[in-house]
Amino acid sequence: MTGKVITIDGPAGSGKSTVSRALAAKLQYLYLDTGALYRALAYKALKINLDMNHPAKLAEFCSTTEVTLKNVNGKMTVWVDGEDVGEKIRTEEVGLAASAISAFPVVREKLLSLQREAGAGGGIVAEGRDMGSVVFPDADFKFYLDADLEERIRRRHDELVSKNRAAERSAISRDMKARDAQDTNRKIAPLTSAPDAVVIDSTSLTVSEVLREILEHLQDPLIADTK
Ligand code: DC
What we know:
Elements: E1 5-9, H1 16-27, E2 30-33, H2 34-47, H3 55-64, E3 67-72, E4 75-80, E5 83-84, H4 92-101, H5 105-119, E6 124-128, H6 131-135, E7 141-146, H7 149-162, H8 169-185, E8 198-201, H9 207-218, H10 221-226
Parallel strand pairs: 1-6, 1-7, 2-6, 7-8
Antiparallel strand pairs: 3-4, 4-5
Helix pairs in contact: 1-9, 2-4, 4-8, 7-8
Bound molecules: 2'-deoxycytidine-5'-monophosphate (DC).
């Protein structure tokens, strides 16, 4: 299967990053982690203590900040003003700030063309909140991955523990609920399942099981062969 655009949307902790990365590797597609773009902007906003509720300041921030995607050995990396932000954007603090800043139209507008350009040639697994609904409405395959809140909290907890990071359940629960509310209730491009997306509830599924289900939906003989 060549050149297709596959979108995977879902809330934080639904397993979409792990699944998207694994799917992209299996298909030898590019993996586009769009959350990383919002995180990159949020990372800089936190660093310079930006007042994101001040429209003029936010607009200036967007017009003067350079966000770029670089393909380094097949891996998409995000750069802000010439800095590879890598793992620095993977904190809960940056995640929450990304959720907040992503609600502003000027921010979404800034990142839209970057995402579309990345997917223009196809051969991409694009992961985020609005991939199937806004960024790639004509995608060849759309998936929406969900899981119960308790399971998503458990996964995030295990992930943080495995990285030797602070992982208090009550804090994770509070932050995840806040992100769910922000991402779902914002006016522009909210977290939603596109009407033509296949919805998969991963609550009681392993990563391999979710991946198998997705591959079955791709319904391409070449894909079926790789299973
Ligand atoms: O997937 P993530 O946790 O890295 O995303 C961080 C935040 O970025 C998320 O809470 C909302 C925002 N985001 C978005 O609004 N649209 C996307 N396509 C991806 C992420």
